[in-house]
Amino acid sequence: TFVKEIVPKPIIPWISNTLFSENYVALPMGHGIDETSYWYSWGNSGSNRFSGNVESELAYPAPGSIGEFITEHYWGYTQGRKSTLEYHVTHPQWKCCDVTNFEIAVDFAETYGKQFGFLTTQTPYNVLYAEGSAVTVSFPGRV
User: Fold this and answer.
1) What is the pTM of this model?
2) What span, in angstroms and rounded, lies between the C-alpha atoms of 39 and 50?
3) pLDDT tens digits, residue range 68-124?
4) What is the rounded end-to-end Cα distance, in angstroms, of the chain?
5) Is 55 helix (H, G, I), strand (E, B) or coil?
6) Structural domain containing residue 10
7) Cα dist. 137→56, 82, 126 in Å?
8) CA separation for the pair 41, 106 (Å, rounded)
9) How many structural domains are present in the chain?
10) Rg of the chain's alpha carbons, rounded to an integer?
């Protein structure tokens, strides 16, 4: 289960929250990507934003690396109304690389709840850029 998943289209939270008992919300989102940098924003007027530079080639993550741990998840689990639910996520393996010169301007308490406010002053353990792709998610089944 995600703490909160932010997406741009209202239909996604409706499906995810109804079928998977997840915590998705729809908010205005923006992004920009060029050859060596990117930015993402969400909230009213893009009030939450992160950006960074990508200066190395994208590559498949090494086995056992943090990149593999973050990007290679093909099964999801959530607590349903009566039992734990399992669903399969399908996507190709994603290439990724480390990010340099990043900036994070996020109100974590507002976005994720007061208990996550401490993250505003924390330095991330890892900042990763992944190419991503379309994904498919199966209907959930009881475990």
Assistant:
1) 0.77
2) 6
3) 999 998 888 888 788 898 889 999 999 999 998 999 999 999 999 999 999 999 999
4) 15
5) coil
6) 5-142
7) 31, 21, 27
8) 9
9) 1
10) 16
